[in-house]
Amino acid sequence: MNHIFASLFATAAISLALPNVLHAADPANPNAKCLGLRKERILKRFDANNNGVLDPEEKAAAQKARAERRQKLLDRFDGNGDGVLDDTERQAAKAGRGRKHNLQK
């Protein structure tokens, strides 16, 4: 019985996630280009063996860099020191880091 429930749950999860994955890969999706460029930048920076895939060690290095970047943002913009950016702090962080990740049309 548990196996059936697990199978149904997995099928439902895939069914819900698939449209989002397809939408992200759709060239008509305005975020598709940004997602592709982000993936390209990550591979360029962390794919040490240039095989086009992040191996476990490379993925760990990328995750460590992301955590360090997040901590720097918190250190800089978390005014009340609660470890979370509230709406005001988030707006200040967006303004402070610029919008360099937005694509020119």
How would you sum up this structure, described in words?
It is a single chain. The chain is an all-alpha fold and 105 residues long. The protein folds into 2 domains: 1-30, no CATH class; 33-105, no CATH class. Helices cover 69% and strands 0% of the residues. It is built from 4 helices and no strands. The chain has helices at residues 2-25, 32-46, 56-77, 87-97. The longest helix is centred in the first third of the chain and has 24 residues, at 2-25. The protein starts with a helix and ends in an 8-residue tail after the last helix. Mean pLDDT is 76; it is low at 99-105.
Spans with pLDDT under 50 lasting ≥5 residues? 99-105
Order of helices and strands: HHHH
Count of runs of 4 or more consecutive helical residues = 4
Please state roughly what percent of the residues sit in beta strands, choosing from under 5%, 5-15%, 15-25%, 25-35%, 35-45% or over 45%: under 5%
Number of strands: 0
Number of domains: 2
